[in-house]
Amino acid sequence: MKIAVVGTRGIPDIQGGVETHCQELYPRLAAMGHDVTVVCRTPYLAPGHPDSYKGVSLLPVYAPRRKSLEATVHTFLALLKVRRLNPDIVHIHAIGPALLTPMARLLGMKVVTTNHGPDYDRAKWGRLARFVLRSGERMGARYSNAVIVISRVIADIEARLYGRTDTRLIFNGVNTPVPSWIRNLPKSTQSAPPMNRRRRTPRPGLRPSTAPFSPSGATSASTPPTSRVPPISPLRWRRRWRRAR
Asked: What CA–CA distance (Å, rounded) separates 137 from 27?
């Protein structure tokens, strides 16, 4: 499938929630065999910006530096550009760029929009900008072939305000962080099962230990130290148990 992506500032390593979303999503789609092109805004591209990223083609398109015009003007030019690519789907991100969803449909393209949230609720926007953002949300809901939402709250907005009850709810994902001390362990011990220890006290409990199992009883030098519980004599333990009762 040929996918053209519009509405993001660009990838990779460009600040923004939508940008992080796209940087994680589209290389995965490209790895599945899809032909993905992400349209980037030129003011955010550093000199020497790559033409591709992990199998995703990057297409620079002009965008003005004025906050009030940036998204709308760039989306207009981007849609004209990607029309020549003859994509199977145009994926428009955010409600600001979604204002031009009818234009994409008039150009004969199938459109999927992702509503990342009601940006018009942010204090940084004035009355006119809020009106434009609400209009973009409405145009995206009304004219998109499919609408993706990232939360149930946004799905409720789409259904309650615009009657769009067929939205696809896809939550944002995160990469599971790996502690540096685990990355430094030998590969042979990284997959070893975790061990648990139990101490005999009036209130026993499990103490998880992240130290990798070793048949010789030795642990890696990279493993963080774990506390050792000194042995308790039966008499002292019996006294503690009686006091706890």
From this structure: 27
